[in-house]
Amino acid sequence: MALIVQKYGGTSVGDVDRIKNVARRVIHTKNQDHEVVVVVSAMAGETDKLIRLAHQVTPSPDEREMDVLVSTGEQVSVALLAMALKDMGAEAKSYLGFQIKIGTDSAFGKARITGIESEKMLHDLRSGRIVVVAGFQGIDELDNITTLGRGGSDTTAVAIAAALKADSCEIYTDVDGVYTTDPNLCSKARKLSKISYDEMLEMASLGSKVLQIRSVEFAKKYDVPIHVRSSFNDNLGTIVCKEDEEMEKVVVSGVTYNKNEAKIEVMRLPDTPGVAAKLFKPVADANIVVDMIIQTSSTEKGCADVAFTVPKSDFNKALQIVRETSKELGTKEVKSNEDIAKVSIVGVGMRSHSNVATQMFSALAKEGINIQMISTSEIKISCIIDSKYTELAVRALHDAFELDKPTVAEEK
Amino acid sequence: MALIVQKYGGTSVGDVDRIKNVARRVIHTKNQDHEVVVVVSAMAGETDKLIRLAHQVTPSPDEREMDVLVSTGEQVSVALLAMALKDMGAEAKSYLGFQIKIGTDSAFGKARITGIESEKMLHDLRSGRIVVVAGFQGIDELDNITTLGRGGSDTTAVAIAAALKADSCEIYTDVDGVYTTDPNLCSKARKLSKISYDEMLEMASLGSKVLQIRSVEFAKKYDVPIHVRSSFNDNLGTIVCKEDEEMEKVVVSGVTYNKNEAKIEVMRLPDTPGVAAKLFKPVADANIVVDMIIQTSSTEKGCADVAFTVPKSDFNKALQIVRETSKELGTKEVKSNEDIAKVSIVGVGMRSHSNVATQMFSALAKEGINIQMISTSEIKISCIIDSKYTELAVRALHDAFELDKPTVAEEK
Fold this sequence. Notes:
Carbamate kinase; alpha/beta
């Protein structure tokens, strides 16, 4: 007997038939003599519908009331799923954030879980009940309803698995695992059987949308292995877990890309101490997140060229701010480019392999792809290229690192 | 400065524009230096939509989960109204049943309020905030969500008014008060400026659907005067309050009718002690509510004729049960009639006036309307007649008791 936490996303509970399908899967697990906690999201489209309703009332809805509003989506899902389970003869009970005290801070819309009371759930599980929990929502110390941000139900599931010391946390979604790269873009993409928390964090933040980043951080912190799989078939998915020796032998686990950034370059900036801070402070003050930053000596002596990327959605605002600041700092030459993409390779094995970067640059060069910017971390290398080469670059890197071939561990 | 509880029904918050309209009314009241608590129902049609969704999952949804589901309707309303209020510059905060501990018993779908914590609301009111409360919902001792039954938001409003010792409880609806009779049926119908709790209870149970019966019982118990009025205009409505001397001078306050009952007659039933109990027990066991019962000596010696009415929705079931029981009790003659209506006159003044019944019977006789059954209480007389005479009877009684003329008190 194992204690299993299963999370089903919005698509998996998108209509009444799918909810019944989820109920059947849950009962199947229960019948294998397991204890089951199910976490569900709002039915696909419901959260967006509620947000649109709020925006009809006011362009800037109060954050506290927004959480009261959108948390109803998951409330509807848990009630319907518990009804379906009972209708199929199982004992089941739904719980909202306030009922099992999913405690959070008071950051409405992006709250962080601070604690979960496990007694009620454990009592129900020991009594043979299936426990159905509303994802995405919690309460703060003053009993205000809070929500955890987009994809927050993943974090609810992982946090509950941690609180209950569950044997397994299964995240059901509409894809059947984590792939070496986007299968829509590269036909050779291969499903990974295993990936480390750190690799998953890099993959997620680089644009792969399988899991909410925060849920992976939570899983890493409490060492909860996550099994990402599809609710529409019985295939094994991908296990996200602590890295082991075998993983380290794999140099590159995945190739990701991101087309949602734009580049801004400030040329011939007088290079005095503190100039970078002066350039970026107004950008940060406008709540714009800068991703890559590169500073080089300019062709003009005593000057530097600074290039950086921002999300495309903030591009116009950022450009306007930077133009003003640049003028104050003594240069007017600001260039920009929206037609860029970031391609990255991720893998824990990089730490112990020195020539990975060279391999990446060669692979791109062989296809005639010019690299505009480079950024590296311990387990990731990213290059900014012309966006029209994105697909070509992804396929070239996938081939260069032989990601279509199963790893030694997977062959066993 | 007064503390005012206002309740807005589903039609009054039926869309975003109407929610904004309610927000303006609430702020108008607040700006007259009053403290305001607003109770709202689900947007019109939402509760039915949720119930339909549940019935797509299962024909007999679990009652606990049903309450989790339908309580989301009011949650959406309070969030949107609080947003609208804040958008218009007012300080406002929404509360759900669990947040201000609207305690109830555990009778899911028809729970009764047992207590309300007033601290949070009073603190907010004293801080200048408008308090927005979800109607219809509460929590039981184990933190399960409960609902109060159709029209339950009226009861929420009255209970909150009682708990906060409010100066006034205003129920806003789509009619602008309580009328002497149905204006759609009798053009001379007049809005009452005042009506007693007991009269309102009789009117409500007899078919006038302005207020939930339980809210009137609650108001009577805690002596909370209710002001029933329209959210679409500024007219004064009807005050439902404790009866006073002036009210007693009015013999008849209103004429009501009900076409939703059917009549069953059992003829020549051997009249032995306990025979009535034997006849009605199986009906009660089937959860059918019997309204009027009349027993008379039969034309056959030692026998009795028994006639009674049941809701039309239960008519077929009741008829089948009564046919079986009658056979066992020694008679086969069971007659039935679905084409009946109940017309009633209601008024606290009846207690001290002896000839009201005679006046009623004469008025009906003058129009050639035959009375099939009569039932009376302290402040009400009801007659069962052929349903085709309903409109005629209502108008005749309205005329006979001169209900189109304002009372002495109203003329002042």
